[in-house]
Design goal:
Elements: H1 11-21, E1 25-29, H2 30-41, E2 49-54, H3 61-69, E3 73-76, H4 79-87, E4 95-98, H5 106-116, E5 120-123, H6 126-138, E6 143-148, E7 170-171, H7 172-184, E8 189-193, H8 202-219, E9 225-227, H9 245-263, E10 268-271, H10 275-278, E11 282-293, E12 300-304, H11 313-317, E13 323-326, E14 332-335, E15 347-352, E16 373-375, E17 383-386, E18 409-412, E19 418-422, H12 427-431
Parallel strand pairs: 1-18, 2-3, 2-10, 3-4, 4-5, 5-6, 6-7, 6-8, 8-9, 9-10, 12-15
Antiparallel strand pairs: 1-11, 11-12, 11-17, 13-14, 13-17, 15-16, 18-19
This protein binds pyridoxal-5'-phosphate.
Pyridoxal-5'-phosphate (PLP) binds near residues 75, 77, 98, 161 and 230.
Length: about 425
């Protein structure tokens, strides 16, 4: 039986799901998500560990329930995300809000209500701090504070959230002003937070630990938890290497112990991975609509029935996702993880979607150039499956471009059952808020 990547999803399961639900669809593997959660929960630490799942990676209700059911809390990046988690049954006290929004207007009352019930507010701007400080002080609510360290690391420039090109967190230059404000308003900062970016070099993550502990020692006498953010590198492609969570944890443990020996303070560590939990648990399965060639000096194209509107990452970042070719009958014809078993007609091919947009390709580099990839030659109506599609794919789509419908989401349960966790969108839903002339 041929599985896709490290998951329990087989080519037969793809073919069966395609028959039941039609293409395109997202498919998630429950077992892989469970394994990843167990993995991060075991991360070595000195004086306790809080793990929150960064729900922006994939906010499907069933996945939030699955992940929080294992003991992870949630990192929400907008009030709506936090409300969505709450609607999924997750208590406010298990959610931290790290947002770029400024709490004004009607959302302000909702935020206060949620904070009174336990939502943790992470001040990421001076203005946010100014706006919530009085309320927090009156209700005796301690806040978190996100620090902009001036140094970051990401898989691409656009995923670095710590250096001078990004604007996340209270910059070191403003830190004393922010802390003076907190003292004046009598509000306690008990969590020091940082997130330097997504998928960067793990060495940068180690340096992030050192730096953050330095800030806590210098500026934050009341902090009991150091939140180091998410960003653990995950390997979507066979030539990539994931971050070694255990090794990072052992390093952190040593550093937190040294901090204790220096200061007498036992700090809890917090992390908030998104990608690492769900990226490799997900697939976008598409049907092959047609094949084309642009001549001897051109390319062999595969036209899939899902592209940029269902997975925007290649267009946004030049992200690579592994391709699998699956026959209609459920045979794995090629996998980039197993090029030893090449199908006879394996060749370099370019996967494109069906949008009227030349950038609608799954085979792009960071400059928008086409990079053909080795794969089998599918028959029409076979399946082209895009791996590494559990994080920032369904949740970050260019939804409804060309009026294509949002694909359904299916969860492969550990029991083998295929459970619909989001129904397919209907055309009426796209137009329901429009009004006639
Ligand atoms: C504040 C914060 N925490 C955690 C994450 C999760 O990052 P990743 O998915 O790379 O683990 C993000 C992602 O951008 C973030 O902005």
């Amino acid at each position: 039986m041929s599985t896709l990547g490290q998951t329990t999803v087989t080519a037969q399961i793809i073919a069966k799901a395609a028959e039941l639900f039609g293409t395109p669809f997202y498919l998630y593997d429950e077992q892989t998500i469970l394994n990843k959660c167990y993995d991060v929960l075991k991360m070595p630490n000195a004086f306790g560990l809080d793990v929150s799942y960064a729900m922006k990676a994939n906010s499907n209700k069933a996945l939030l329930q699955l992940i929080t059911g294992l003991g992870l809390d949630l990192d929400a990046s907008s009030l709506n995300e936090a409300k969505r988690a709450h609607l999924a049954g997750i208590p406010w006290s298990r959610i931290m809000l790290t947002s770029q929004e400024v709490p004004l207007g009607p959302a302000r009352a909702e935020l206060e209500e949620a904070m009174k019930k336990g939502l943790k507010y992470n001040a990421c701007y001076l203005r946010q701090l100014e706006l919530v400080a009085d309320f927090a002080a009156v209700h005796g609510l301690a806040l978190a504070m996100r620090i902009h360290p001036g140094v970051g690391a990401g898989e691409s420039v656009t995923r670095n959230t710590g250096d001078k090109y990004s604007c996340f967190g209270i910059h070191l230059n403003d830190l004393e002003k922010a802390l003076e404000l907190a003292t004046r308003k009598k509000v306690t900062i008990d969590v020091a937070h940082v997130h330097i970016g997504s998928g960067g070099d793990p060495q940068q993550w180690r340096e992030n630990i050192d730096r953050q502990l330095g800030y806590v020692e210098k500026y934050f006498p009341n902090v009991h938890t150091v939140n180091l953010g998410g960003g653990f590198k995950e390997a979507r492609m066979p030539d990539e290497k994931p971050a070694d969570i255990r090794e990072l944890g052992l390093y952190a443990r040593r550093k937190f112990h040294e901090f204790y020996e220096r200061t007498g303070r036992k700090l809890k560590m917090a992390i908030e991975p998104g990608t690492y939990i769900v990226a490799n648990a997900g697939f976008l399965a598409t049907g092959v609509l047609d094949k084309k060639s642009t001549g001897d000096d051109g390319f062999n194209f595969i036209i899939a029935d899902g592209g940029m509107e269902a997975n925007s990452r290649p267009l946004l970042y030049g992200s690579r996702h592994p391709f699998y070719v699956v026959s209609k009958s459920g045979r794995l014809l090629s996998s980039e993880f197993d090029l030893g078993e090449l199908y006879p007609e394996t060749d370099y091919r370019v996967v494109v979607g069906r949008c009227c947009e030349s950038g609608d390709s799954q085979s792009l580099d960071a400059h928008g150039h086409i990079i053909p990839r080795l794969m089998a030659n599918p028959e029409l109506d076979d399946y082209l499956v895009i791996g590494g599609a559990g994080a920032y794919v369904s949740s970050m789509t260019l939804i409804n471009y060309n009026s294509y419908l949002q694909p359904p989401e299916i969860l492969l349960r550990t029991s083998g059952e295929l459970q619909v966790i989001r129904a397919p969108q209907r055309l009426e839903q796209i137009v329901q808020n429009e009004r006639p002339l």
